[in-house]
Design brief:
This protein is α/β, with parallel strands linked by helices. It is built from 14 helices and eight strands.
C-alpha cells in the first residue's frame, strides 16, 4: 500500500509540474494555481511518504534509495535557491547634481531636485510624479523636464519614499498609497505654492488622482501620461474596446513576460512574505537590486520599438518593497471617484499608441474630468518621452499655455 501511495503522488506531482511549465509557456493565469497545487497536494505528500514508508516495503529498494538521495539533494537545492542572497548586476545609482532633501511631517526623508524656472516665473510650480511605485528620478527625466523650467515653471522631481535616495521605511507595511498621498500633501506645503501642476506618469497618475480627490483646491492643472488604472480597480474596464479611430495597438511584449523572465523562486518568496506577513526575506539592498533588474525586463513592454532598449546592466534606484506593498494597499483605498467626478480641473491625457495600459482605464480619467483633452502619441509606448520626446513636450507645452 505504501509503495502505491508513493508512486501515485510522485506521478501526480510530475504531471502537475509539466502542466505548470506548459501553462507558463502560454502565459496562462492558471500557472500559479497549478504550481501551488503541485507543491501542496502532490509534492509534499510524495516526499512525506517517500521517507516514512520503510525501505523494505519499497521495491526495488535501490531505486527508492536513489529517489531518497535525489529528493534530499532537491530539497537542499530548493533551500539554497530560497535563502541564498543574490546579485542582479545592477549598477550603482549615478550621481545627480543639486540633490536636496525634505524631512516631511510624515516621517519620510525625500530626495528631490528643483529645476528653477527661468525668466518670468509662472505662478504655479510643476511637480512630476514618477511611475512604479518605486521609480526613481534619472538624469534623463531631469533633461526632459528642463524645457518646462525654461518656460518659467519651477519644476520639482523627487524620489518617492522607498526608492532612489529617499529613505527606506523600517516597517514595510507603512508603504501604502495613502502614505504616498500624505507625502505629496506635505511636499506641496514645502513648495509654498497656493496651487501646483501635477504631471503623473503611470502610477504617478494614480497618485495625482488620489491627491486631487482630497485636495482639489491645490491643483491648477494635471497631465496624465500613460495613466495607470484609478484605484481601487474596476476590472471590468479592461474589456472596454478602444475606438478604431485612435489606431491603438498592443506592444510587442507584455508586463507578464517581463515578470516571468526576471523572477525566480527567491524573488517570488520575497513578495509573498512581504505582502502576507509584512516581513523582509531579503535586505533592501538585494531587493532594490532585483527591482532595477525587473524594471529593465518590464521596460520591453513600455515601448513600441524594442530596438530602443539597451542591453546594458540596469541602473539602481528602483524600490522593491515600496512597489509590492503599495500595490497591495490599493484594495483598501477609499474610492476617490465620487470626489473626482465632474471636477473642474483641466486635465491632459497623453497615451502612447502602443501603451500597455488598457483603454478602459485611460478612458475613466476622461469620464471623471469633463475639462479634458486626449492626445494619442503615434509610435510611442507606455514611456512616451523615451520614444517621442518632441511630441511629448509639444503636447504638454500647448496644454500649459491655455
Amino acid at each position: 500500500m505504501g509503495k502505491k501511495i508513493v508512486i501515485t503522488f510522485g506521478l501526480a506531482a510530475l504531471l502537475a509540474f509539466f502542466a505548470g511549465r506548459i501553462l507558463e509557456s502560454i502565459h496562462s493565469p492558471l500557472t500559479d494555481f497549478v504550481g501551488i497545487l503541485c507543491v501542496s497536494l502532490f509534492t509534499g505528500p510524495f516526499l512525506l511518504f517517500l521517507f516514512i514508508v520503510p525501505l523494505k516495503r519499497l521495491t526495488p529498494a535501490p531505486v527508492f534509495r536513489g529517489l531518497r538521495v535525489a529528493a534530499l539533494l532537491g530539497i537542499l537545492g530548493f533551500l539554497i535557491a530560497l535563502f541564498a542572497p543574490r546579485s542582479y548586476g545592477t549598477l550603482p545609482m549615478p550621481k545627480r547634481a543639486n540633490i536636496r532633501y525634505w524631512d516631511l511631517s510624515t516621517g519620510s526623508r525625500i530626495a528631490y531636485t528643483l529645476i528653477p524656472g527661468k525668466g518670468t516665473k509662472k505662478p504655479y510650480p510643476v511637480i512630476y510624479l514618477e511611475g512604479g511605485p518605486g521609480g526613481a528620478v534619472t538624469e534623463g527625466l531631469i533633461q526632459i523636464m528642463t524645457p518646462f523650467a525654461n518656460d518659467g515653471y519651477d519644476v520639482y522631481v523627487y524620489d518617492q519614499v522607498g526608492s532612489g535616495r529617499s529613505s527606506r521605511l523600517a516597517d514595510i507595511r507603512e508603504y501604502t498609497a495613502d502614505r504616498h498621498k500624505k507625502d505629496l500633501e506635505a511636499i506641496v506645503k514645502q513648495t509654498g505654492a497656493e496651487k501646483v501642476i501635477l504631471i503623473g506618469q503611470s502610477w504617478g497618475a494614480i497618485l495625482a488622482a488620489l491627491y486631487t480627490a482630497g485636495n482639489p483646491g491645490h491643483v491648477a492643472k494635471m497631465i496624465f501620461t500613460g495613466p495607470g488604472p484609478i484605484q481601487p480597480l474596476r476590472p471590468e474596464l479592461a474589456n472596454l474596446p478602444a475606438p478604431d479611430s485612435l489606431h491603438l495597438r498592443e506592444p510587442y511584449y507584455t508586463n507578464h513576460q517581463g515578470n516571468e523572465r526576471a523572477n525566480n523562486l527567491r524573488t517570488r518568496a520575497m513578495e509573498i512574505i512581504a505582502t502576507r506577513f509584512g516581513k523582509r526575506l531579503a535586505s533592501d539592498r538585494e531587493a532594490d537590486d532585483f527591482a532595477a533588474f525587473l524594471a529593465a525586463n518590464v521596460n520591453w513592454s513600455a515601448v513600441c520599438d524594442t530596438s530602443l532598449i539597451k542591453q546594458t546592466p540596469p541602473e539602481g534606484g528602483a524600490g522593491f518593497y515600496v512597489q509590492v506593498m503599495t500595490v497591495q494597499s490599493f484594495r483598501s483605498l477609499p474610492d476617490p471617484r465620487p470626489r473626482l467626478r465632474n471636477s473642474p480641473i483641466p486635465i491632459l491625457v497623453l497615451k502612447g499608441q502602443c501603451d500597455n495600459q488598457k483603454w478602459g482605464f485611460t478612458n475613466e480619467y476622461l469620464q471623471l474630468f469633463p475639462d479634458h483633452r486626449l492626445v494619442v502619441i503615434p509610435d510611442a509606448g507606455h514611456s512616451i518621452y523615451r520614444e517621442q520626446p518632441a511630441l511629448y513636450l509639444a503636447a504638454i507645452r500647448e496644454f500649459l499655455t491655455k
